[in-house]
């Protein structure tokens, strides 16, 4: 789904790093990308690693408004 704006555990801002994470993950390992973005806490790293971008799949089933 969508990544939370802030970490649920520590409150660190995460949403501003999501686009960069998605762009760089294609070329580098997840660990390298998270280190470069400055995501240090294990709670924040777990959110990035476990989040999957499903918004395009959800939009396929969106009810059409007439």
What does this structure look like?
The chain is an all-alpha fold and 66 residues long. 45% of the residues lie in helices and 0% in strands. It is built from 4 helices and no strands. The mean pLDDT is 88.
Biggest beta sheet attributes: none
State the helical fraction: 40-55%
- Principal-axes shape call: globular
Please give the count of helices: 4
Q: H/E element string? A: HHHH
Average pLDDT value? 88
Taking the alpha carbons of the first and last residues, their distance comes to: 26 Å
Supply the number of structural domains: 1
Which CATH first-tier class would you pick?
A: Mainly Alpha
Question: What Rg is obtained from the alpha carbons, in whole angstroms?
Answer: 14 Å
Which CATH architecture would you pick?
A: Orthogonal Bundle
Strand portion: under 5%
Structural class: mainly alpha
- Give start-end ranges of low-pLDDT stretches: none
Question: Can you lay out the helices and strands and say which pair or pack?
Answer:
Elements: H1 18-24, H2 30-37, H3 42-50, H4 55-60
Keywords summarizing the entry:
66 residues, Arc Repressor Mutant, subunit A, 45% helix, 4 helices, mainly alpha
Summarize the structure.
The chain has helices spanning 18-24, 30-37, 42-50, 55-60.
């Amino acid at each position: 789904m969508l990544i939370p704006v802030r970490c649920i555990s520590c409150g660190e801002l995460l949403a501003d790093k999501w686009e960069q994470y998605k762009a760089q993950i294609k070329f580098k390992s997840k660990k390298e990308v998270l280190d470069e973005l400055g995501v240090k806490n294990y709670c924040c790293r777990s959110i990035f690693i476990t989040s999957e971008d499903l918004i395009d799949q959800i939009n396929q089933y969106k009810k059409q408004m007439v």
